[in-house]
Design a protein that fits this description.
- The longest helix is centred in the C-terminal third of the chain and has 24 residues.
- The radius of gyration is 20 Å and the shape is globular.
- It is an alpha/beta fold.
- It is built from 10 helices and 12 strands.
- The chain is about 35% helix and about 15% strand.
- The strands form 3 sheets. It has a 7-stranded mixed sheet with strand order 2-8-7-6-5-3-4, sandwiched between helices. Strands 9-10-12 form a 3-stranded antiparallel sheet, with helices on one face. The chain has a two-stranded parallel sheet with strand order 1-11.
- Helix 1 runs antiparallel to helix 7, helix 3 packs parallel to helix 4 and helix 8 runs parallel beside helix 10.
- Bound molecules: pyridoxal-5'-phosphate (PLP).
């Protein structure tokens, strides 16, 4: 099976993570984990240059998204985000009884107007965006943070594959919350680790609705070890970026339109053509890619950047399917 549908990393995590996990599986697992993730937060503070009291650890960034909404949104409150984007925002806003305000991205995925005007409690910006892979420049993110009425959550799940993070806004703007995950660049999707960076008062609100032991001992151990070996993560990211260029070129040669991607996936489009049959034909060959059955995206496939060999197989299969 070649799995290119959920943006996991095709390469293993740092060997240091695996070693640390091996050492951590001992009698200490009878004990609860640290509810404050103090060691991880101290490590993250050193790596990212943000004070530890501006950092909160989550059970994946998905948990952090849920905590933001649970802490800030009452039924009927507005939550804004440009679409199409990460589908969990809409799901969790609905679960919370919030009212989603969703201005549409134009075809080039530049930031649409109407976000700040929504006067929302929370505004989400997925940056780089999924499924487009496109990046909103930092100056525009800062202008948006200054313009919105409530909290601006910048979801940077894919930022290590691109350039330009909003972390520099944390500490300068009290309403900015930046989310990071260990699931993508650090190859640790199976362990569920995310970090939120923001003003301590904002984080205090999130803590009131968080389970105390939200990260288990092994996840904490793995995250600390991962931050001790940035070189492995960066080497994997460099390989993925090179393969991303090959993938985009290969798709263009097959007649797809591909948006410039700053993430570990690309959005490939055949304008006006429903690509569900192509996704099915690939699945029959044990290649999974993501097709969204929505009016805006049915002519597109989101394809995770796998290994070079996986991408060669995918491109060969697409060529065979088209002919
Ligand atoms: C934009 C975005 N945010 C957050 C997540 C979830 O990350 P995590 O595995 O840390 O919950 C994903 C996962 O695909 C994502 O695409």
């Amino acid at each position: 099976m070649i799995k290119l549908n959920t943006n996991e990393n095709p390469y293993p995590p740092s060997p240091r993570v695996v070693e640390a996990l091996g050492r951590a599986v001992d009698a200490s697992i009878r004990l609860y984990p640290d509810p404050d993730a103090s060691a991880l937060r101290a490590r993250a503070a050193a790596v990212y240059g943000i004070p530890a009291d501006h950092i909160l650890a989550g059970n994946g960034s998905d948990e952090l998204i849920a905590l933001v909404l649970r802490a800030t949104v009452d039924p009927g409150d507005r939550v804004a985000f440009p679409v199409p984007t990460y589908s969990l925002y809409a799901t969790l806003v609905a679960a919370q009884g919030g009212a989603a305000v969703t201005p549409a991205y134009p075809d080039d995925f530049s930031l649409p107007a109407g976000l700040a005007e929504a006067r929302a409690r929370v505004t989400f910006l997925c940056n780089p965006n999924s499924p487009s892979g496109t990046l909103t420049p930092l100056a525009q993110v800062e202008a948006l943070a200054r313009a919105v009425a409530g909290v601006l959550v910048v979801d940077e799940a894919y930022v290590d594959f691109g350039r330009g993070s909003a972390l520099s806004l944390v500490g300068r703007l009290d309403n900015v919350l930046v989310l990071r995950t260990f699931s993508k660049s650090f190859s640790l999707a199976g362990l569920r680790i995310g970090l939120a960076f923001g003003h301590p008062e904002l984080l205090a609100g999130l803590r009131t609705v968080k389970d105390s032991y939200n990260l288990d001992r092994l996840a904490l151990t793995a995250a600390e070890a991962a931050l001790d070996d940035l070189a492995t993560m960066q080497a994997n990211v460099a390989r993925i970026r090179e393969t991303r260029t090959r993938l985009a070129r290969g798709l263009c040669a097959l007649g797809f339109r591909v948006l410039p991607s700053e993430a570990n996936f690309v959005l490939a489009r055949r304008p006006g053509v429903d690509l569900a049959p192509v996704a099915h034909a690939l699945a029959e060959r044990d290649i999974l890619v993501r097709h969204f059955a929505t009016p805006r995206l049915r002519d597109a496939l989101r394809i995770t950047v796998g290994t070079d060999a996986e991408i060669d197989t995918l491109l060969g299969a697409l060529e065979a399917i088209a002919s």
